[in-house]
């Protein structure tokens, strides 16, 4: 069944191309699961809904296919790929390696002003949990990790993480139905270790945080079986 196309939610930035804006919006809908795994997409319908020509949509489809989120069958259909546990685990491994180094640096680099920003983000995350606002918590979760990278002087690490974490994000979104508070508790422990200027404790807390998905993915898969590819969950490192 063809998935209804959602109305666009972006305003084209002055310096962004239409193709980049279409790509960003479709990627957001894919990672937030507004576009469900297994659903079919129509290039023409998306172009019409977003008020653009078909070329930027075609370009966005190609980029998303290269990232593994769409399967394009010429003259047949474009389908949102099912969630691959293997892709999720690879994304987690890349993210863990980069962020572990980041928190080691952040433990000596962050200032009281930086901690004020992180504490404010923790408060906002707590409010999002209380309001059961999963999309907001997900955005604040990303912002928390990005701020640590940037304030440690490693913003380019976040660029690499963002390029590779998409497959993990779809599972993370599903995990928020039951694990938002656990994620928040992890963030609190990470900040506490950073404030103590303890790189090993910060790294341990970060690794534990990103490893939670190893214990969650089979539960998530069992609850959303139709959205997952038919493959065993590989063991994590």
TrEMBL record:
The keyword Transcription regulation applies. It comes from the Bacteria. This is GntR family transcriptional regulator. InterPro entries: GntR_C, TF_FadR/GntR_C, Tscrpt_reg_HTH_GntR, WH-like_DNA-bd_sf, WH_DNA-bd_sf. Residues 16-83 form the HTH gntR-type domain. SMART domains: FCD (SM00895), HTH_GNTR (SM00345). One of its GO terms (molecular function) is DNA-binding transcription factor activity. The keyword Chaperone does not apply. The lineage of its organism: Bacteria, Pseudomonadati, Pseudomonadota, Alphaproteobacteria, Rhodobacterales. Keywords: DNA-binding, Transcription, Transcription regulation.
């Amino acid at each position: 069944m063809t998935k209804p196309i959602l109305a666009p939610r972006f305003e084209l930035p002055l310096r962004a191309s239409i193709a980049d804006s279409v790509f960003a919006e479709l990627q957001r809908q894919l990672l937030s699961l507004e576009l469900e795994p297994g659903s079919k997409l129509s290039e023409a319908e998306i172009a019409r809904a977003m008020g653009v020509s078909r070329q930027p949509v075609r370009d966005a489809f190609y980029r998303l296919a290269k990232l593994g989120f769409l399967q394009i069958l010429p003259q047949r259909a474009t389908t949102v790929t099912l969630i691959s546990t293997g892709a999720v685990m690879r994304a987690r491994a890349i993210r863990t390696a980069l962020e572990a180094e980041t928190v080691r640096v952040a433990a000596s680099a962050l200032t009281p002003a930086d901690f004020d920003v992180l504490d404010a983000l923790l408060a906002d995350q707590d409010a999002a949990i209380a309001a059961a606002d999963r999309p907001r918590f997900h955005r604040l979760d990303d912002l928390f990790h990005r701020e640590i990278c940037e304030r440690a002087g490693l913003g380019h690490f976040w660029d690499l993480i963002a390029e590779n974490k998409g497959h993990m994000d779809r599972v993370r979104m599903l995990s928020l139905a039951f694990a938002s508070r656990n994620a928040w508790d992890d963030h609190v422990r990470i900040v506490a270790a950073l404030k103590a200027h303890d790189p090993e404790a910060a790294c341990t807390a970060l690794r534990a945080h990103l490893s939670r998905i190893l214990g969650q993915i089979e539960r998530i898969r069992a609850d959303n079986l139709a959205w997952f590819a038919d493959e065993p969950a590989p063991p994590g490192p």
